[in-house]
Design goal:
The chain is α/β, with parallel strands linked by helices and 305 residues long. Helix content is 37%, strand content 23%. Strands 8-12-7-11-9-10 form a 6-stranded mixed β-sheet, sandwiched between helices. Strands 4-1-5-13-6 form a 5-stranded mixed β-sheet. A two-stranded antiparallel ribbon has the order 2-3.
Length: 305
């Protein structure tokens, strides 16, 4: 090899090394970003799907709407998924680069999805959305006229407006309503103060979980205004595995605490003979962060794999 050729080759190798060094500078500044997700099976599945939609991970398509951690087939960015108890995620947000938090826990913590979330779960009203919450009956009672009247009372403008104004983006109606309608001032307070008598009415026991069930006061108001002769008695359970068991055994008449995916999981795993008879609300899961102002910023910090 000629002396000039050796010299030229040396220059090329030096230039290539410089390019590689510069390319590595960005990765040196990246870090593994920890993302908190709920540790319960259903909401963890939702979190995994949300992170997939964000372009952060790849998920086995065969897992459908209910993937588990084992179904995460690839990490497109340097992120680590950390399961944690759902209700602790708002208070521990500083411990993570970001966390997926349900509206039920986000709103009381002062987090507003439209203002604070990096990404909001896509929950359309139509189609096969598995995360729409539902009123559930025993399959043999799915056409019961009284229960259908309860569903119809729930799926009204008054209840929709109450959900929107009372819960401030934690819940959205999962049925048709007039989005342009605005209730009069004091509407929420009026519903909150509403009381009804069970005397002379058919009592329907409805199982619920958690503290956010005041929309049933609006349902009761609708039933009374229509002279339906139905009184809603809420039965509050402190664990999510109890209402379906109580409904299946006949202890309650209906329940309204779960989305479609959870019901299907319960039917398949326990063998309950239950059926959803009406959509109620949606509670979107959102990705929040106290460190990053956008999903793009999070990705830039994490760096691609």
């Amino acid at each position: 090899m000629k002396k000039e050729s050796k010299k030229h080759l040396t220059y090329l190798l030096a230039a290539a090394a410089a390019v590689l060094t510069l390319a590595g500078c960005g990765s040196q500044n990246s870090e593994t970003v920890k993302i908190g997700v709920p540790d319960d099976a259903t909401n963890q599945a939702r979190a995994i799907k949300l992170l997939e939609s964000a372009g952060l991970i790849e998920v086995d398509p065969a897992a459908g709407y209910t993937p588990e951690m084992k179904d995460v087939t690839g990490y497109l960015y340097n992120v680590e998924i950390v399961p944690a108890t759902a209700n602790t995620l708002p208070s521990t947000l500083n411990d993570y680069g970001a966390s997926t938090i349900n509206g039920t826990y986000a709103i009381p913590a002062g987090l507003v999805p439209s203002r604070d979330a990096l990404l909001i779960e896509n929950q359309g009203e139509a189609g096969d959305n598995p995360y729409v919450n539902i009123i559930v009956a025993r399959t043999e009672d799915q056409d019961n006229a009284v229960y259908q009247t309860v569903v119809e009372a729930y799926q009204t403008q008054i209840v929709a407006q109450y959900l929107i104004e009372k819960y401030q983006e934690a819940f959205f109606p999962a049925f048709a309503y007039d989005e342009e309608y605005r209730a009069e001032e004091g509407f929420v307070d009026e519903i909150d103060r509403y009381t009804s008598s069970r005397e002379g009415k058919t009592v329907v026991k409805v199982g619920v979980c958690g503290a956010s069930n005041d929309q049933w006061k609006a349902v009761q108001k609708v039933l009374d205004e229509e002279n339906a002769g139905i009184y809603i008695e809420l039965v509050v359970f402190d664990a999510y595995n109890l209402p379906n068991e109580a409904l299946n055994s006949g202890e309650i008449d209906l329940n309204a605490f779960q989305h479609k995916a959870y019901l299907q999981q319960e039917i398949e795993s326990v063998g309950y003979d239950l059926t959803g008879i009406g959509d109620t609300l949606m509670a979107p899961l959102s990705l929040y962060s106290n460190r990053f102002s956008s999903l793009e910023e999070l990705k830039e910090q994490a760096g691609q794999k």
